[in-house]
Every structure is written in structure tokens, then in C-alpha cells.
Give the backbone structure.
Amino acid sequence: MRDNKEDCPHCNANLQGESILKSQQEAYGSTHFSRKIGVYDFFKDRTVKWTCPDCQGEWDR
């Protein structure tokens, strides 16, 4: 099992997305997009959980 923050804790799927254009990486603060889906709570006004697009497993932010 890989120890990577871009892996799903449920199915171990790699959640690293497509690479970001070199000219735009500074604006995004990263080299790749993420496949994680944010679960937003309107009352807390923030993302509270993540969802895996492969297994639909959820975990706390």
C-alpha cells in the first residue's frame, strides 16, 4: 500500500489528476489537478469531506 495523500483511503485508487500547464502551475499552487470530489457544507461554508470518484467512499477533510 502506497502512503500518498492523493490515494483513496478506501480503495487505494490514485486520485492525482491531469497535469496543469507549466505556465499556470503557480496560480494553482500545484503541478496536477486532483480527482477528489469535495463535499461542501453550506452552513459551515466549507468543504467538510472528500469523495472518491471510483468507489464513492467518503472521508473527513
Remarks:
- DSSP finds one helix and five strands in the chain.
- The first strand starts at residue 16 and ends at 19.
- Residues 16-60 form one domain.
- The chain has one domain: 16-60.
